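Slide 14.
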Amino acid sequence: MEHTENNEQSVVNPESGASPEQDVLFAELAAYDAANDPEIKAETEQAEQAEAQAEQAAAEMAPMSAMFALMGIEQAIKAFVHPRFEISDERREQVARDCAPALIKYGAMLPAWLAEYEAEIMAVKAVGGLTIESVGQVKRLQAEDAATLAAMQADEAANDDDENENKEDAA
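Slide 15: predicted structure.
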């Protein structure tokens, strides 16, 4: 019988310098440590708790983000399309509730620091809405005044025509 040498070389992971078997063993040890080491376990629990808090905050922020967007849309329509346009509170809440999951999914939400200024934002919204409504009301009043003045001038012109006819008839 002929003796053959086993010339197979073991494969080494260039990053760790370990064989695939050793990499698997290291991964198993790391998993064991993560499950049983109190420090690692505490870090993992803290990370999970932070993630849960972030998800809770996102769930709370999403409807508020949708409401702010709707307020902006409503104010823009009032300013540029029609001053009496209004989104009902019921519809606004429904849209905010229905849009919240998409806002969470795509991260299209107000930054957390902006949520801290909700009261100030609501005040700006109120003052902005009042400003837009006031400007619209002034424009309507000016249009009414112009229409009243035009009607008065038309009446005066008609009266003048009647007086001129009466003078011609008298002559």
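Speaker note: The chain is about 80% helix and 0% strand.
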